[in-house]
Amino acid sequence: MAITALGSAASGLRALSTSIDVISNNLSNAETTAFKGSRVNFEDLMYQTYRAPGTVSSSGDISPNGIFVGLGTKISGTELNMSQGSLSNTNNPLDLGIQGNGFFRVKILSTLGDGTAYTRAGNFNINSNGMLVLGLGDGYQLIPPITIPTGVTQITISQSGNVSVIKPGASAQSSVGQIKLTQFVNPQGLNLLGGSLYQETQSSGAPIDSLPGVNGAGTILQNYLEASNVDPVTEMVSLIKVQRSFELNSQSIQSADQALQTISNLRRS
Predict the structure, then answer these.
(1) What does pTM read for this prediction?
(2) Which of 19, 106, 169, 266 is at a distance of 20 to 30 A from 113, taking alpha carbons?
(3) What is the pLDDT, as a whole number, of residue 89?
(4) Closest C-alpha among 142, 140, 136, 137 to residue 157
(5) What is the pLDDT of residues 42-77, one digit of tens each?
(6) Helices (H), the chain
(7) Rounded to whole angstroms, what are the CA distances from 189 to 170, 198, 203, 248?
(8) DSSP per residue, 91-145
(9) Is the CA virtual torsion 26, 28, 31, 33 positive or negative?
């Protein structure tokens, strides 16, 4: 029936509209530090079964196939692409890029979950108390906290996350803290808070803290920032494909509507 076609096409329009929203968000964040793009996964809906495969006819013949009519599609989920973005040199000693797996742990508002979040954005600053904070939002404090003494002449952060400085009047470096990285069994299951921040969920698994370069965690590169992993060309191709599918579903609705009008006119004649 054409009515079934209307429902199927409408479900396609709803799903494809959401897909356009996701692609648009990816494109808008193509220059966002450490942004991770998303993709939309589709799944088909239930089917109306008019004849099951293997049905035995009155003459004893077994049908080699059945008759099924699908009822459309829906979005099964959006999946994060956690692949690493390119690392670019900034010549800023407080810019940190993660080469490999892992997240920085930062302190956020206590009203949001357990008050902690995770990010791969490493554009850190020093606040008025001398503490390392993320240069996003209100300045989220790094966990474990690291304090940079006033007037230091050099800040060095090793690939293993050790933070050392040269204090005024000194010639040798002294350690002031250790940066740790956090990993998750299923990083795609993290909750997106916005602002390049993620939060733990039951799907992501519990956070696993370790030193950089240990137990599968990546290493830290000072003077580098991770760029967005969004490829604008790929996203534009996906957008064109979705637009074409949207147009075809719109055409299906028009065809189904014309069929219903034809049937209605037959009843009047």
Answers:
(1) 0.85
(2) 19
(3) 96
(4) 142
(5) 999 988 888 888 888 777 788 888 888 888 999 999
(6) 2-28, 232-268
(7) 47, 10, 5, 33
(8) --TTBEEEESB-BEEEE--TTSTTSEEEE---BEEE-TTSBEEESSTTTEEEES-
(9) negative
pLDDT in tens, 242-268: 999 999 988 888 887 777 777 777 766
Give the residue among 4, 9, 3, 1 at the shortest CA–CA distance from 251.
Answer: 9
Q: What are phi and psi of 29, to 5 degrees?
A: -110, 25
Report DSSP state, residue 32.
S
How far does Cα 230 stand from its chain's mean position? 10
Domain boundaries, the chain: 2-82+231-268, 87-226
Decide which of 27 and 264 is more confident.
27
The answer to whether the beta carbons of residues 100 and 221 sit under 8 Å apart is no
Half-sphere exposure for 35 (CA within 13 Å, toward CB) = 17
Nearest to 256 by CA among 68, 74, 1, 72: 1
Distances (CA, A) of 39 to 11, 24, 227: 18, 11, 18
- 132-142: per-residue pLDDT in tens? 999 887 789 99
Q: What does the DSSP 8-state code read for residue 54?
A: T
Length of the chain: 269
CA distance linking residue 148 with residue 4, whole number of Å:
66
